[in-house]
Design goal:
CATH class of the largest domain: Mainly Beta
CATH topology of the largest domain: Tumour Suppressor Smad4
Shape: globular
Order of helices and strands: EHEHEHEHHEEEHHEEEEEEHEEE
Structural class: alpha+beta
Radius of gyration: 19 Å
Distance between the termini: 26 Å
Helix content: 25-40%
Strand content: 25-35%
CATH architecture of the largest domain: Sandwich
Oligomer: single chain
């Protein structure tokens, strides 16, 4: 039936030259569909899944998420790095360079991976309530460049510094994790690493895996003196301790907020919520990954 390549032309690293190089590495007979706005990748994936042998996605993490929310898992999915961070293909071993990744998935293997859901919407690698969701929102509020590209890692660093200094380094308990107690914010991981800062992996939870359930890391509160330790723990992968909740391989986690708090999935702002139900969806889709010789 042939394959489909969904391209977000506004992703940070995508250009027509890159699209041509990627197409040259993928199987022949490829159909290319370019998105023009939010949500379109979901509609394309939903409409075309039954008519193709594979779907490749050249984009950033937001468009990968859209595709995952449009498919039923009938065909393999190849995630090619086209964004500034592109966490998902890197977590699947495909690296940061789109042409090389296309070469790998074009002759690679499939891996059945699990996904997460929050309030019914799928996510691939991470979700969060509070701190990291607020960062995503602040970046979105900066808008995009004339070519539609999103601010990069440096903007996230500036936003994080601004958020911490604006709160004077204090994040009191603001939500309840059912069965686990109070927390200032919650980070939910579906794989390790949680995200990247440039080339540096931010692990958050050691052992989080596409093959297992969800991991949750949630500090009870944060004070100025505790920030350095917490940053080191999140960078290396946190281990539970007094004042820091770490849950592993969870099928379902319910979080209730004292007041509406921002929620993000895969780096996309989902707005404010007062309750979030996180669920693991085991073996949800086939992802194309490097073969044994890749």
């Amino acid at each position: 039936m042939g394959a489909l390549l969904i391209v977000n032309p506004h992703a940070s690293q995508v250009s027509e030259e890159l699209v041509e190089r990627v197409v040259a590495e993928l199987p022949s007979g490829l159909d290319v569909a370019r998105t023009s706005g939010p949500g379109e990748a979901t509609a394309i994936a939903r409409e075309r899944e039954a008519t193709v042998d594979a779907i490749y996605v050249l984009s950033g993490d937001g468009t990968y998420n859209e595709v995952l929310n449009g498919v039923e898992g009938r065909v393999p999915l190849g995630f090619l790095p086209g964004g500034g961070t592109s966490v998902l293909p890197r977590a699947l071993g495909l690296g940061r360079e789109a042409t090389a990744a296309a070469r790998l998935v074009g002759r690679g293997a499939t891996r059945r991976i699990g996904l997460g859901r929050v309030n019914g919407r799928r996510f691939a690698f991470n979700a969060g309530i509070g701190f990291d969701a607020e960062l995503v929102r602040r970046i979105d509020e900066q808008g995009r460049a004339d070519d539609g590209r999103r601010p990069g890692d440096a903007a996230f660093v500036r936003a994080a510094v601004g958020l911490v200094t604006g709160r004077r380094g204090r994040f009191p308990p603001s939500l309840e994790i059912e069965g686990a107690g109070r927390a200032a914010f919650a980070l939910v991981a579906n794989c390790d690493p949680y995200t990247y800062a440039g080339k540096v992996p931010i692990r958050v939870s050691r052992g989080a895996s596409f093959d297992l359930g969800l991991d949750v890391v949630a500090p009870r509160s944060v004070s100025p003196g505790g920030i350095p330790r917490l940053l080191v723990e999140l960078r290396r992968g946190a281990v539970g301790r007094p004042g820091l909740t770490v849950l592993h391989d969870m099928e379902r986690v319910v979080v209730r907020c004292d007041e509406p708090m921002p929620l993000q999935i895969d780096g996309e702002d989902l707005g404010d919520v007062v309750e979030a139900v996180f669920e693991s969806e085991p073996r949800a889709v086939d992802a194309l990954v490097p073969g044994s010789g890749g």
